From TrEMBL:
Chain segments annotated as coiled-coil in the UniProt record: none
Entry's localization field: Mitochondrion
UniProt record similarity statement: Belongs to the TRAFAC class TrmE-Era-EngA-EngB-Septin-like GTPase superfamily. TrmE GTPase family.
Record protein name field: TrmE-type G domain-containing protein
Length: 523
């Protein structure tokens, strides 16, 4: 590995003569490269190179300074973090490939904590291909595997697992709410919150470990074990509050699963087309047109929503349609939010000018719950002059209802605005708290939720699984008395490890640090 400028110069004469006598394995070729920008025509493409031989690649392919115009490789080591205007040449033939920019990030102050070189070239398909092909001729370099640069950043301590997940979510973010949440995770805010939980568990473990190590013949403060129990009880309430969030963080990241259902020809596919602002679904007056589930990912009120249009719910002897109906029923039952579309001319029976009756098909009404949204379509086809809409919506059994005409567009924009607000309100509803039987404890959970209302801690199923494990170990600790302090300490150790798995930080030496830093042995 290069250690100084003289070594850098001494290696340059060998770089143009590529030896293939003994091919190196992928493990030996520890310097990796890849295109770091999306492929396709654009102004600039960035090729990233990381590893111990990154500077050797610079010397083999980069011409800058006075040598750039002559097409000669530079023999000077580049100044770190300085952008050079340069030419890019083939390492073996010396043929010019492109004119661009190059920058060198010196280890450990780089994304991967290794030496990193970035080549900023024109984003033409032929140019990118020629540079990547030229890099493949170097025996000590290989093409990076998916996510390998970020993996090296994690191994080098630049990122923890929550930041890695946040970085991926940031790249995949499609809505403003997703961007904000992912940016906080990638910036380390999520890591800090998980690390605070882990440190609090370690502090409790330090108190218990002190009783084990110094309990005999030493002056230990009375009530130390009781203090640890009180802190663990507080931790249990905190974890319970985070876990009782109705998966708000996961929904924010992956999207709200919305199922549109209803009888045939009610306007479900027309609604999907309205929301998508394009002809995403086939619309015909023939019942049973939609036979399978059609899914779209949309942004509604800044929230990511995965919308599924389903087959019309009805009794049918058609084998294919019956399969679609069965799938639709299962999808509605498993969705985060369901929206039932009904045709007003089909369900509304007016007995007089001011008296009416609403009849919903049994196959559909069985799927309508207290939290189901209702959309009454085709209001242009009925006379609503003497029927107050609020009265009509209440008669269906829900206040979460709207009347529209998807054909004429009447009231559709008001529906979209109100529906977006309802989804936002639903995303911050903590149903798990409301169903808790302990009213005092339930109030504590709600208070804890309010503190983290805008920043859900759990954004991945992996986080939830580890926190559930940690909570189980903390509850197991509370089941032990002070006579079983050794077993109790082991439960706390498991709890700390479970939380540490979220960020990938597990270090038993932290327990010793806490004992000597925060716990006073006294004398």
């Amino acid at each position: 590995m290069r250690t100084d400028g003289s070594a850098f110069n001494a290696q340059q004469h060998t770089l143009t003569e590529v030896r293939v006598d003994l091919p190196l394995s992928d493990t030996q070729r520890s310097t990796i490269y890849a295109l770091s920008t999306p492929p396709g025509k654009a102004g600039v493409a960035v090729i990233r190179i990381s590893g111990p031989d990154a500077l050797n690649i610079w010397g083999a392919m980069v011409c800058h300074g006075s040598s750039a115009s002559k097409g000669k490789r530079s023999t000077r080591e580049p100044i770190p973090w300085k952008m050079y205007k340069c030419g890019i040449v083939h390492p073996a033939s010396g043929d010019s490939l492109d004119d661009g920019l190059a920058v060198y990030f010196k280890a450990p102050r780089s994304f991967t904590t290794e030496d990193v070189v970035e080549l900023h070239i024109h984003s033409g398909r032929a140019i990118i291909s020629s540079v990547l092909t030229a890099l493949s001729h170097l025996p000590f370099a290989r093409h990076a595997e998916p996510g390998e640069f970020t993996r090296r950043a994690f191994k080098g301590g630049r990122l923890d697992l929550t930041q890695v997940e946040g970085l991926k979510d940031l790249i995949n973010a499609e809505t403003e709410s997703q961007r904000r949440a992912a940016l906080k995770a990638a910036g380390g805010i999520t890591r800090v919150r998980f690390e605070q939980l882990r440190k609090e568990i370690i502090q409790c473990l330090a108190l218990v470990e002190a009783l084990i190590d110094f309990g005999e013949g030493e002056d230990i403060e009375e009530g130390t074990y009781d203090l640890a129990r009180l802190r663990v009880q507080d931790l249990c309430r905190t974890l319970e509050a985070h876990l009782a969030d109705s998966r708000r963080g996961e929904i924010l990241r992956s999207g709200i699963r919305l199922a549109i259902f209803g009888p045939p020809n009610a306007g479900k596919s027309s609604l999907l087309n309205f929301l998508a602002q394009r002809e995403a679904a086939i619309v015909t007056p023939i019942p049973g047109t939609t036979r399978d589930i059609l899914e779209l990912s949309l942004d509604i009120g800044g929230l990511p929503v995965l919308i599924a249009d389903t087959a019309g719910i009805r009794q049918t002897e058609d084998v294919v349609e019956s399969i679609g109906v069965e799938r639709a029923e299962k999808l509605v039952q498993g969705a985060d939010v369901s929206l039932c579309v009904l045709s007003l001319p089909e369900i509304l029976q007016q007995r007089s000018a001011e008296q009416f009756e609403v009849t919903i098909p049994p196959a559909v009404s069985s799927l309508i719950g207290r939290d189901t949204f209702i959309l009454l379509n085709k209001m242009d086809a009925v006379d609503l002059t003497h029927i107050p809409l609020d009265h009509l919506h209440t008669s269906i059994g829900t206040e979460q209802a709207w009347s529209v005409s998807l054909t004429t567009g009447e009231c559709t924009h008001a529906f979209l605005d109100n529906f977006a607000q309802a989804l936002q309100q639903r995303s911050v509803t903590f149903q798990a708290c409301l169903s808790h039987t302990d009213h005092v404890h339930r109030f504590d959970l709600l208070q804890e939720h309010e503190a983290h209302r805008e920043e859900p801690l759990i954004t991945h199923a992996r986080h939830r699984a580890h926190l559930e494990d940690a909570l189980q170990f903390l509850r197991a600790f509370l089941d032990y008395s002070s006579a079983d302090v050794v077993f109790a300490a082991e439960e706390l150790r498991y709890a700390a490890q479970a939380v540490g798995k979220v960020s990938g930080t597990i270090d038993v030496e932290d327990i010793l640090d806490a004992v000597f830093r925060d716990f006073c042995i006294g004398k």
